[in-house]
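Form 7-S
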Amino acid sequence: MNSDSDLQIAGDILEVPHLLRAPREHPATVAEFVGLARSIAADRAQWEHLVEYDATTRWYHRLSTGPGYEVWLLSWVPGQGSGLHDHGPSSGVLTVLDGTLTERTERGTRALGAGAQRVFAPGYVHEVVNDTLEPAISLHVYFPGLTEMPMHTACARRDGAETVDAVTA
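Output:
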């Protein structure tokens, strides 16, 4: 009977560099994009000094790009909103960094406080609004990079709630 262990026979896999996967330089999966957003959110020194507030329009700044994706930083003063829209062929991760934002979809309304994340696929229609009395900051990762943001109109359903009716742009 042979008492050699698998480790003795094959050797330590960590000692065989050609068998290890090289760490990816850029995210490639939804989970990795969520992780990227979380790591940027946790590193306030990377983004906090860049934030500006504009009372006339939402402020935004492209924070970084990589192959097939981009990262945006946005600020929202009270009352500012995105309008009802989708992101064309892009998927995304929305992360609230500070404050509270309200997301409205045909499925309902939800408040997103600091640390909340939403992941969405192409064609996901929503509106994001700062309904509070305090400013908010959010981080958006789009993959592939954002090339279009069609705006939508809403019409009333029979039950009185609003629902998406048509693309307007």
